[in-house]
Design brief:
Blueprint lengths: L2 H5 L37 H31 L11 H30 L6 H27 L4
Helix pairs in contact: 2-3, 2-4, 3-4
Length: 153
């Protein structure tokens, strides 16, 4: 048996000074020798989209809040009655809130889809789903408080 016949076999050999066998060619009968570690996984696309939607809606709500503060003094007269020309601004605010809350619902759904994808990182999916869900819950709480107090107006 010579040295050339041993090196041509399918069995991985170790080099002199290197106790690890050569892993460039998998051995016969063994499954994949390389297994993905968690840090090698990619982020899920829907999870990233859910996180971005949550950031966009937070900025949208902040812009609406600033808009309401700026317009509040011009919408009300000295008797605390709403002016007739402020109806367009109120309609714009209402439509904006409806659109932003619909984006939050879409963000929750996309976040759940991002969480259900296997072999992907779920960090952005979790964060996006939680932020969008909290915003939806706060919105529902606001509507509930308004409806409870509507009878006292």
């Amino acid at each position: 048996m010579d040295l050339n016949s041993l090196s041509k076999s399918n069995v991985p050999t170790a080099e002199v000074g290197n106790p690890q066998p050569d892993r460039s060619q998998p051995s016969v009968g063994s499954p994949s020798t390389y297994q993905k570690v968690d840090h090698d996984l990619q982020h899920s696309g829907p999870g990233i989209a859910s996180f971005i939607i949550s950031l966009v809606t937070i900025m949208g709500y902040a812009a609406l809040f600033i808009f309401i503060i700026m317009k509040a003094s011009s919408m009300v007269n000295e008797n605390s009655n709403l002016l007739a020309e402020s109806s367009q601004s109120i309609m714009l605010l209402g439509m904006s809130v409806i659109i932003l809350s619909a984006l939050n619902v879409i963000g929750v759904v996309i976040g759940i889809i991002g969480l259900s994808i296997r072999k992907r990182r779920k960090v952005f999916g979790v964060i996006g789903t939680i932020i969008n869900g909290v915003i939806i819950l706060l919105f529902m709480l606001l509507i509930t408080i308004f409806l409870v107090n509507a009878g006292t107006l």
